[in-house]
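Dear U.,

For the methods section draft, I wanted the exact inputs and outputs in one place so we can describe them consistently. I've listed the two proteins in the order they'll appear in the manuscript figures. Please don't edit the token lines directly; just add comments below if something needs changing.

First protein:
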Amino acid sequence: MTKHEGGFPNGFRESRVSLLGIPSERGAGTAGTLMGPAALRTAGLPALLADLGYRVDDRGDMTPPVPVVPPMDPAAATRCRNLAEITAWTRAIHDEAHAMTAAGGIPVFMGGDHSLSMGTISGVARACREANRELAVLWLDAHADYNTPATTPSGNMHGMALAYLTGDASLAPLAGDEGLVRVSPANVSLFGVRSVDREERRALADHGVEVVDMRQIDEEGIAAPLGRILARLKARNVHLHVSFDADVLDPSLAPGTGTAVMGGATYREAHLVMEMIHDSGLLGSLDLVELNPFLDERGRTARLVADLTASLFGLTVLHRQPA
């Protein structure tokens, strides 16, 4: 993809990016996402960001923490696969994400399965509370990830991340001593969704979570609904955390994910999403999750995710000034 570099003056308020690899896979049903951080580095993500003018601090990969058994109701615990490992990851990631966010710059968390967002976003939320900043979450995903131990059909905890972050009581024991800084469901926007379990659908409606599914995108195009979300958030000058799941993309473009669903975002739709977020100047932190190199084809998905991240950080065909 031949593009002209826009760089950080064309949007973001920060010129420093911190990368952290989170080689986790215990929250997913298919092994392989622990190789995601290495694949993104091999695809050239740090160099792409440096070429755009950012100061890139690659902090390496986290070491898998020692499992921790949370004080969870036994009936709920039995419905959560690899609970002790996910609890330990959540608490360790929370501490790293809090420190990285508080230090300034834009933290980029390279995963790893989507359960890691229970730690990243809770840590970001804690830092935002301390800085008196409002946090909003844009969840780019084929799935809602709003199951609970009572509703999960699989027990895989990457499908419970948003329920945890918005305060589900049965999952609250996963939090460490600091406790969970809850994200208001009204500040969460799901975008690109096309696979939602029945009980998730009910919970999303009950909690007032905004959902832009692929039918709405088919009817309106991708720019109109995303533009409304970003305009609303820009008026409030929020810290925007973007949680990007590789399965938001159509699997014909991105086969390297264990949770592929047909009918996802096209190449140009995905780049437009990233370009619009960049132009808004709102991005404060980022997850890149569910990249599974074991399922990929000669690095196609890793390269595409790296290219999309470059678009998110200002790589453009022509230099444009944000509105």
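Second protein (the one for the lower panel):
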Amino acid sequence: MGERRTTQMTRCAVLGGSGFIGTHLVNELLARGHHVTTFGRRRAPHPDSDVFRHVVGDFLDRSTINEAITGADYVFHLISLTTPASSDENPFIDVETNVRMSVLLLEACVEQGVRRVIYASTGGAIYGDVQRERHSETDRIEPLSPYAIGKSAIESYLRYFRARHGLDSLSLRISNVYGEGQASKNGQFGIVPTFLDLLVSGRPLTVMGEGDMVRDYIYVRDLVTCMASIFDTPDLPHDLYNCGSGVGMTVLEVISAIEAVTGYSAELTRRPVPSSFVQHVVLDCSRLATDFGMVADTPFSTGVANVWNWMQSDTAQVRTH
């Protein structure tokens, strides 16, 4: 995705920096010469040094959040304590965790004098089950799940804190991310490593409905290149950007691509589609391309091959879970 842009060294706090996307983002920020503090419950992705430190903490504990963002110019908010599936089982959990603690985080950012908050929103569920070929940032959002409603609420609080306190912010509506280091698990997230794990172990792949659910998949390295290139841009043209490939793939097409890369044949089992799941989401990323020349251009087959090669390597033994 484009070329690296040389930026002035800044101090970045990455909340969720030891997770899947966060680890890749931290590596990219450090490679560009920024100072980075990560925050989370997992181990640090790097040893502490002059340019890196890790704060161990829980997102539900404001005191450790304050410690993590102290001295930061920019705060990346990548933490979500729920998934679409888990929030569907308990519609209050997003309000009690993600929304509440995000508001407390924004208050702390105002107190600490943070320049800008970069928020990882969702580019899938937030648009709802509206039949459009592609969803743009100007489209009306119609979130159906508590997870998506929570993401929408946090975007709104970002706008409130900008208007009320002058806290600059950037929301990135990110499509389905995949890549090396992603945990394999059931559910909407991690579909590529999950299917790869199931294939090689000879177990069937679970497909919702007919497998015709369409999603936009973005390779993680494309995503973090974009994030690290635009986060500190002065006077951003917009405060909201879709981040995806702009290409829609059905679940069955994903499976076919995985079979082609691995040489395995998949056995399928089918389950009913949950009522809150969205059938078709592909992102219109022309705003990002127009403003920054950023295009996610890694072919899905190439990305899957990279994940497959990684899973067979020794580095897979330290995979994020």
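Candidate sentences for the figure legend, describing the second protein: The two ends are 27 Å apart (CA to CA). Residues 27 and 45 are 9 Å apart (CA to CA).

Thanks,
Y.
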